[in-house]
Write a structure and sequence with these properties.
The complex is a heterodimer of chains A (about 230) and B (about 200). Chain A is elongated and about 85 Å long. Chain A is an all-alpha fold. Helix content of chain A is about 80%, strand content about 0%. Chain A is built from 8 helices and no strands. Chain B has 4 helices and no strands. Chain B is mainly α. Helices cover about 50% and strands about 0% of the residues of chain B. Chain B is elongated and about 105 Å long. Classes of the chains: A mainly alpha (about 230), B mainly alpha (about 200). Chains A and B meet through helix 3, helix 4, helix 5 and helix 8 of A and helix 1, helix 2 and helix 3 of B.
Chain lengths: ~230, ~200
């Protein structure tokens, strides 16, 4: 900047201000556009996660094509009641997260915090039920490996089912654990004085992630527990 | 405008915004509650299919109900209902890419014939060749890098009954006719592939 322009800037700062504002990204100047950007960014991330879990489901589909009988026998050993309870917990958690995101957008931070605490508690309950299921399957000898046996015999298809089952549900549980930790953190911030750090766009993006984890479990539920009729 | 008037205008504006937010929040809670009840009803229907002996209908029903639940969550909870074009496009592209992944993978997998139980796809070729040769009544040969495994003959007895979508095996191709006159044909350096097709 030459001496003449510099003198002008000092003498008339209002003439320089529009230039300074244009140097910032215009989107950050409008809350609505910030919200849209956060939403789109999370959707793009979820599209990638969809492909990640889609590959896991595809592996299941190919394996079940070749080992249908083994998969049916293995699925009959899973706990339908625990799986149904877990699905109900996650669906209720999703409803709570949606209500929390809406409360945040309607400028109700304390109510949003309450909804987020409810969602986090339901997520923890899911993980607890899943842990009890794992313990039961371990004691029944259903963990794949040298000690695997189903009804006292080795079945390659059943062992393949349980290998996939433990891998897929562990991946899902890891995603859910991250979601629970983030939700609990946001609930803490929303209930405190620093609630501006948990603004509506961030809460909405977190809710999208939570709903995606729920969608993954909705897809896993029939593949694990409903392979063949029971009783 | 006096300071008191400015305060009054700002208070009225905040009250109108708050009333609008209250109405929006109340309607959203009703919508989420109704969706939650619908999802629980679908879950109950899905669990009930475990008691129904419907053959392939079980798979169709459970998968269909799961897709419906996913669509409800995406449409209502995830906000696709009121989202603008870019998030909807991102969701659609992700779903399309998943369908493409599934279609192209199944195109590769479905036409493959099931191998005998002892010859699994993840075993080394050196282990598969003697098993296949024994299964098809051919002389056992040791595996060398220049020799490919012989094409499997139809194995209807060993095909698993639980794979209704396995394609019917194709017959192996007839041996090539001997050449007339002249010098004998040189031995073929390229063996047919596992499907019996000449390379």
């Amino acid at each position: 900047m030459n001496a003449t322009a510099h003198d002008t800037a000092l003498a008339h700062p209002e003439a320089v201000a529009p230039v300074r504002d244009m140097q910032r990204t215009p989107r950050h100047a409008e809350p609505r556009l910030r919200h849209e950007t956060a939403r789109l960014g999370m959707w793009v991330f979820l599209a990638g996660e969809l492909l990640f879990f889609g590959a896991v489901l595809l592996v299941y589909g190919v394996a079940r094509l070749h080992e249908g009988a083994g998969f049916a026998a293995a699925s009959a050993k899973t706990d339908l009641l625990a799986g149904t309870l877990n699905t109900a917990l996650l669906l209720t958690g999703s409803a709570a997260m949606a209500a929390g995101a809406e409360a945040s957008e309607c400028n109700r931070p304390r109510e949003a915090a309450r909804w987020l605490w409810i969602a986090a508690a339901l997520g923890l309950a899911f993980l607890a039920v899943k842990g009890m299921e794992y313990r039961h399957e371990w004691t029944e000898g259903l963990f794949p490996g040298p000690g695997f046996a189903i009804d006292g015999r080795r079945d390659r298809g059943a062992e393949l089912f349980f290998a996939w089952y433990f891998a897929a549900t562990a991946l899902h549980a890891l995603h859910l654990a991250v979601a629970v930790a983030l939700v609990a953190g946001f609930a803490l911030v929303l209930g405190s004085r620093r609630r501006r750090h948990a603004g509506a766009p961030r809460v909405h993006a977190l809710a999208l992630y939570w709903h995606f984890v729920d969608v993954v479990w909705i897809a896993l539920y029939p593949l694990i527990y409903l392979v063949a009729p029971r009783g | 405008m006096s300071r008191a008037a400015r305060k009054r205008v700002a208070r009225d504006r905040a009250a109108r915004a708050s009333a609008g937010h209250d109405e929006r929040y109340r309607r959203a809670l009703v919508r989420f509650g109704a969706t939650w009840l619908a999802l629980l009803a679908l879950l109950a229907a899905s669990a009930a299919t475990a008691l129904w002996h419907g053959g392939i209908g079980n798979l169709v029903a459970s998968t269909g109900i799961a897709l419906l639940k996913c669509a409800l969550v995406a449409w209502v909870y995830m906000g696709l209902r009121e989202a603008s074009a870019p998030p909807r496009a991102a969701a659609a592209i992700g779903a399309f890419a998943l369908l493409l992944l599934a279609a192209l993978s199944l195109v590769d997998v479905l036409p493959r014939r099931a191998l005998p139980d002892a010859a699994a796809a993840w075993q080394q070729p050196q282990r598969i060749a003697p098993v296949l040769a024994q299964a098809h009544g051919m002389p056992r040969t040791s595996m060398s890098p220049s020799v490919s495994p012989s094409p499997p003959a139809p194995q209807s007895a060993s095909r698993p009954a639980s794979s209704p979508l396995s394609p019917s095996p194709r017959p192996s191709p007839p041996p090539p006719p001997p050449e007339r006159g002249g010098t004998p044909a040189a031995p073929r350096t390229h063996s047919p592939d596992l499907e019996g097709h000449p390379r």
